[in-house]
Amino acid sequence: MQNDDTLVTLDDVATLAGVSRMTVSRVLNNRGGASQETQRRIREAASQLNYRPNAMARSLKSRRSQTVGVMVPDISNPFFPEIFRGAESIAQAHGYTLILSNVVESADREVEVLEKLLAQQVDGIIWCSARMPGDALAESLRTARQVVLVNRTTDPELARSVTVDYGLGARLAVEHLTQIGVRRVGIVAGPDWSYGARERLSGVTDALADCGVAAGRILHCDPTIDGGRMAAASMLADDRSIDGLICYNDLTAIGATQACRNLRIGVPDDLALLGFDDIDMAQLVTPTITSLGVERYEIGRAAMTLLLKLIEGRPAEDKIVLHPKLAVRGSTLRTAAQ
Fold first, then answer.
1. Which of 25, 71, 94, 190 could form an SS bridge with 248, CB 3.0 to 4.6 Å?
2. Smallest Cα–Cα separation from 299: which of 78, 149, 166, 155?
């Protein structure tokens, strides 16, 4: 048995198994070229010596590290772990390991994490909901290898994208509210520096105008339960004519229901509200939250599949667009207008 501090090499395995170094390399890399008995001896020798392949040497030879960085703005937001799981399912099947980094809603932190991932020679990056301004994002992408953006688009020469059709989602939301008789809609719009928030807000305001629905106040807030609660409380205290709320995500929608409860506004009878993302928590509160959702697991799978095409030099789409679906629940289940 080798000492734990001793680096076990292919030569050590070859000596113990009584074969050549080349034969050991072929067998341990599943390239055949040896009898069943020889393969057994080699694998037993490798196990006995606790041999581990030299990943650094292998990556230098292949020019790939078999690792991919995944950047998310807030790991505590239930929207992102499912994306990671979906990406991981594809990564594992292709021999890749994911490195998860939480950038805590900070554009500065994104720069720091990106530099560290590049220093680790990751083969590519899945960058979820990038918070950087457009020019800064483009500049950072010029230094990267292969990148897929989630919930963000840019010049496809710099990065490819997996996005959600928020325009369609906004129209589904507004049409649903009009069907149940809502006449004046307030918007809890999320952070004003978020690309995704701006996309959702643009879609909602366009849909409201097209459907002839009056728009109430628009308030930006942190994408959290507390952010939604404070924004909704301020909005509804100033304008009790609002009878519908469209919230940036389900967390802000949950916060908005708390504000309504504190103001003694009944949901959905006095005010109907809905959110985006359809996280599991939307079904665990009272009332349950009507939400526009997309399969987050599939977002991750699509992003990793697209990234692998880029890494391997295969033809790849500039952008993959997924379509949201409306899940109607308690926060809007009231009698439709006659």
1. 190
2. 149
